[in-house]
Amino acid sequence: MKALRFFCVIGVLLALLAVGQPAQADMEFLISCEGTLCAGGGLYAYQYTLLNTSVGAVTLTDFFVGSDDSNIAHYTFILPPAWTGVVIPNDGTVCSVTYTSTVLTPHGGYMLGTSRPSLAVIHWTGTATIPPAGTFTFAYINTNAPIDQEWYAYCPSSPPTGWTVAQVPAPIAGPLGTFTIGYIHGPSSLPVPVIPPTWGAVKGLFQ
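-> structure tokens emitted (207 positions)
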């Protein structure tokens, strides 16, 4: 009887653990954060590459990244063919609300936690069929300084929900070719600071 109760308890614990992992069970992608503003090794100020980790091809239709810059005029999108990029309110209407730590955590580091919702969301829409171990890249130019931001990817044909969601705790994705399920870097509300020349450099101009 004691042995029976023991196995029943173990079974319940395993069931609870399984219920607590819906995002991991539905994970189709890992991501690499590759922007030049965060020393990610890519070609553009902000750049992300998704890696299909599933055993079959998946069809990606939506990609979302949190941002603290809601001004669409500050963005130049480098778009894949037949894709569009916009900046939308972070109100939970199109995707779940994205969050930010409000600071820049280095690639491979762990955030201390999220501080608040992002001020906006960057939303790409299109259709891309990505084979197993295949990749797909999004990029844009924005001159605001990078901070940690949440991301989502949506594949409508992938059960049970189709969503891949950034995980905490997990190492910050990147640099180029380093894929994780962690947060990535997106724009803050402030431009990259311009570092003035040192006094020695200024003095040298007049010597």
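Residues 1-25, 199-207 have pLDDT under 50 and may be disordered.
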